[in-house]
Protein 1
Amino acid sequence: MDIQGQIFGLTCSMAACAGGAWWFVRRFSQARHLLDTPTSKIRSAAQGYAEFYGVLHPQGEEQQRGPLTNTPCLWWRYKIEEEQRSSDNKGSSWRTVESGSSEALLQLDDSTGSCLIDPRGAQVRPLTREVWRGSERHPLGQAKTGWSAFFSGSGQYRYTEERLHAGQPLYAIGDFRSSGGGRQGLDLASAKGAVIREWKSDFSGLLQRFDSDRNGQLDEQEWNRVHLAATLEAEDRHRQQSTQPAQHHLAKPSEARPFILSCAGEDELVRSFYWQAAGAVVLCVLGAVATAWLLGVNRF
């Protein structure tokens, strides 16, 4: 083996070892997060990282539509790939030419309440997934199934569309926050500061309200009245917000924790993560053995 081949082989084996180790840590950590987070009810869940089981419900009459099939749904993700043939026409590969996913809020209901989910940044594992082929960049009409798919199963483009539909079960884990319903405490200092900043953005209006001597400036006494009025305004806004019905939201955590939306349950997800972690261990060990062999047999 020449020196270039040795360097290439060593680089590949070390990359396999490092990649396998990283993937093992990632998947094993995700599995542990899922197992260590208890399932909560929406109405009584603690604020922070939480896990829920529920059913997807539409928020109104208007629904999303899959961009490739025009099928009504609550969430979608699609991909269009183009087949690239090798120069000798003996092999081919697929290149993604277009992709996207829905960012519309999802509504998850359980027996105690509703929660709005922001799917951005989530690992979404939907129940519905359709894959078919065609000769046009964008497919025409519904995905072909059955005999029609068999007879038209060729073409230089491959389409994939995944969807979430109303009535489907959903497992969700992420950062849970509630507002209204008297659940939020009042941080008076920050609330007052927000009111003052809002008033300062219209400084002429602020002067009109509190500049009693009309000299175009606010002296110390006038600023004291501003702070007193801002305190009363912040308290009044908090009282009004507390009377509103509680609203619950789930979104991507700020920490490096899993944010998963899946039609499969926790047990299936954890089993999948453990299998992937096991595969990563095998890859890491093979990479380490290959690296040791190359270093031992081929002296640089």
Protein 2
Amino acid sequence: MIGRRAIFLIGLLIGFAAVTFWPAQAHASSCESSVFNPITKVRWSCIFPITIGGVRVGPHDPLGSALDSQTASKPLCACRKGVTFWFGVKVSFWSPNRMVDVVTEPGCMMALGADILPTHGKLQGSQSSISDGTNTRKMFAQMHYYISPVWKMLDLFTDLPCLEDDGFDVALITEVLPTWQSATLGAIIQPEAILFGNPAAGLACMGDSAAAAAGKVVDPLFWCMGSWGATYPIAGDIHFDDSVEAWAGLAARGVFMMGRLGALTISSSDGCSFIPQPIWTKSRYKLQMMEPVKGGQCVNVGRPGALWSSAKHAPGKDNAQFMLFEKTICCAGVAVP
């Protein structure tokens, strides 16, 4: 928690200078949202399948099937944390732990239902055509990343030792990060981006895109986001044909950026602890759109928009909000004195 706040405060100081001197852009949209309501906005069917001691409950999901198989083959577990020791059965499920805003209106905190950072026309989102004969466009938007442990907010399953105990928090807003506003600045602090900005790395993403269409992801291709584009450069610009797909791409890129900042963790395979993720494991995440239109399903990273984005872009609504579901593995048991 201290690390996240340090990153946020440092970025905030830098960002105020960026807001002051950055050239103004055309006003793109207005901030329209309401305070986050987990009961009505979350698609609760996305927590399935649940595996308890090797027994699967709910529909089969190809995403994370390897983790479910591992849980089924090793249903019993034992953990130790300090002087505390417990043993029990492994439980795995999809947990709604994070939210991501992708907004064209700077400072529009959709989870809070308020505009907290008036920029007077600066840092605005935009859309532009690319004159290279490909008929593609480029979108720019800001991203907000929230710590939002829904189970804790609803006071459910609080006795499970592997659920995060953090409260609601704003972990990052990109308006304060000059590197999000410029891919060139981003390359300075993320020099490995040069390694993946070449045709060979781009061709490797074709396999990830095909897998994403089948509901799977290829974790070793961490620089790819299937049909949503690439994780690099870590900035607010993204090429797109489908606006909803572009929103999802920027949301996923925000998750990847949190890992590069050292603020991303996942539950360990034994269900005993959380481990840091400087490079994300894409199969551990899926996204559900909450705004401007509530999505009817959760989608794996990179899933083609043609399979899920229809009728999700309400006219005049250019700000989007996503719930991020994380694959959680938990050793649920009884502590031994």
Protein 3
Amino acid sequence: MDPGSGSQDLCVDEPITLPKSRVGASNDQRFLLIFIAGTYFGPDVKAEVPTKSALQRIALELPPYTHDQLGGSVVRLAEIESVYFYVLRRAHPNVGVKLQSLYKFLQGHLAPPTKENLDDERQFTTLFPPDLHRQARFKGTYKVVENFVFINDPDITYIKAEDIERFKQLTGLTELRLDRDEARFYRHGRRMDRDELKQARLIAIQETHQQAQNGGVPPLISDVSQEPQKRRRKEPVQTVPMPPQAMPGKEKSTQSKSIGPAMILLPSSPTEEQWSNILKATKPSIAFTGSAAARQVGPVIGLVDIGVCEDAYLFRIALPGVKKDQREFSCEVECDGKVVIRGTTTTGEQKVLKNSRTFQMQTQHLCPPGPFTVSFQLPGPVEPREFSGNFGADGVLEGIVMKERERTVSACLTFES
């Protein structure tokens, strides 16, 4: 087996120069494209437990599968980008391809090398036939690959030793196992999407106000969209216990400069009997990132109630000041019961303009404006595709998801306000 090169856009300081008439990739780049796509992803075949990767099925000479045998799961193309770049985060810039080349590979149109003979002709569509793994928009929002799953800890016993060694030398990795969440949501720094642009503008506005108060020269906010993404750095994880209530007598709290992820324990942890002996893990917890983790006294966003019945779980989560626009709000439910909510807050700013008046906020107890994520764990495995939710005018998101009856995968749901 001679794997190729895999799925994500690499952040390169000195992009490879190619003729404008076509987009090509070297043999090392193609090796990584095929290796990553074929090793870390596989078809969602319902009868296969654990799931086998595309290259593993080829090496084991397993029979072809049909559409009726597939489980119907989806993976967003943005996650494929993130996994690809996460794998290459320690690699030399020239071993990765640009975003345009990555999508050419996913579509099956990546051109051969310009100065080398082609070693491996396979493309993404060779490993995942388009008639079984359609690339389409899910619920009219995210573009996804259907009947497709991510494998963060793949079986590598079938891979030749020389291929594994080549992979490690090119990527700088010592092992092939990936952190599931870090890989799926890794910021590769080459795409300036709407949420990131808005967050950059909000940061620039805050810096402008702060420098103006200090008598300094404010930066040009209009130039924010032109700042290179590679200047953005991932904040270190910050773990803080959640206080039982806000401290009285403090009318003014200083916002923390670090808005990295924070782990906050639920104030009242259900017992195993209340979970009907389903939850065997540690106490339930809620993880916050972005603006939701910026307040020192603990965020208002993300207070969660969870209920259990015979065949389903109910959760309610407080999201005050959160936009309900589908382009800026999403909720993902995974098969193991993990719920991940992403959105953008609009309140909590330092200055408020109302009816031609400017108010300088003297207290700052709401989360500052900007993107955020909240994640928590339901008591047991679920059926993500059997999920209904409602984001009410009271700022409370309510969702009901059925308990697992058979093996399934994660799905992305949208809500109506």
Protein 4
Amino acid sequence: MEGKNQSSVNEFILLGFSDLGKLQDLLFIVFLIMYVLTLLGNISIITIIRTDPHLHTPMYYFLSNLSIIDLCCSSTITPKALTNFKVEKKTISLLECAIQMFSLVTMATAECFLLAVMAYDRYVAICNPLLYTVLMTRKVCLQLVMSTYIISMLFSFIHTGNVFSMTFCGSNVINHFCCDLPPLLNLSCSDTFSNQVVLNTFAGIVGTVTVTAICVSYTYIISAILRIRSSEGRQKAFSTCTSHFITVTLFFGTLIFIYVIPTSSYSLNINRVVSVVYTMVIPMVNPMIYSFRNNDVKKALKKSLGEKMFLLNKEFLL
């Protein structure tokens, strides 16, 4: 559908990966597997942390919230993308598009802030271990997480309202598998300069605050770890930060590529591929990173699986 003004545009067409022809069936299977693994991995992490008393600590409380965010982020995008592989009419209404963008920006922003909070948690644990239980109380952890969600929703409300205040005319075909900023800006026939200034300003604030918090935290963390005399102590301290550092690198690396680097320096097709990384791949691999590299999570997982196997065997024998 094409229109001459905004009022005539009540839906968009998501091209997704329709230009890849026969590869679509393969991509459908790959995305479906990734989504199933995302659901299983993140739900397992949340369940294990909630049920194992040994994991009722600030670090794992933040990790369970990271899994919730990853679960919501993937569920915002992947089901629609999978559906569009199998339907002929790949449309999304203006309202659905706005809701999808609002949800995606909320989850992405919340992950930025939560990763910064997790870096601060590791800073307190390693640099001020004697004050850890005093500084990171249950109330403080709850306030940090709630602040993360509230600020992210406010930012997303401004972001989404700013984008959908633009005039869309001409083509309504989005060269993407979801309603994201770069392809929507390409469709607008109005002057997007002021919109981009607002969006870049808010994105710059979020990025500067969170990245600065993470970098400062890790500067103190590395300095403290290097002062530890025993190699075993240094290795143990580093192991508590490695998973978080890998997650930070993957997540912020893809966001910088999509939202910071000017779109003129790369094609929207590349943007589409990179978007798969932060909306589908990262939510899938985060549980793997934390479970494979974290002894506490591995022990809790083995314990949980062992209890389930014991109950199954007991029921079978009865």
